[in-house]
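User: Show me a protein chain along with its predicted structure.
Assistant: Here is one chain, sequence first, then C-alpha cells.
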Amino acid sequence: MRYQVKLHRTVAKTLSRMNPKERSRVIRGLRILETSPYESRVGADIVRLKGTRGREDLFRLRIGDYRIVYAVEGRIVYVTDIFHRGRGYTHMP
C-alpha cells in the first residue's frame, strides 16, 4: 500500500532554497514516507510527537540536521513543516 505525500507551500519553498545536496537527501527521505509513514527503520528515524496540544497525529522524520513534521490522514501524508534542528520545536502549537 502506497501513501501520497503532499507538501505545504512553505515546505516546498524551504526545499527550493536548500543547496542541491541537502535537498536531494531530504527528498529521498520524503519518498520513504510513501511506503510506511509510521515505523522507524534504516534511513527513516520516525517518532510520534508528544505534547502537541490536541494534535495526536503528528510525526517527526529526522534527516541529518533537518526535522520534518507531518500528519497522516487516510492514505495521504501531509508534510506541514521542515526546519533545521537548531531552530527546535518552539514554534509548534
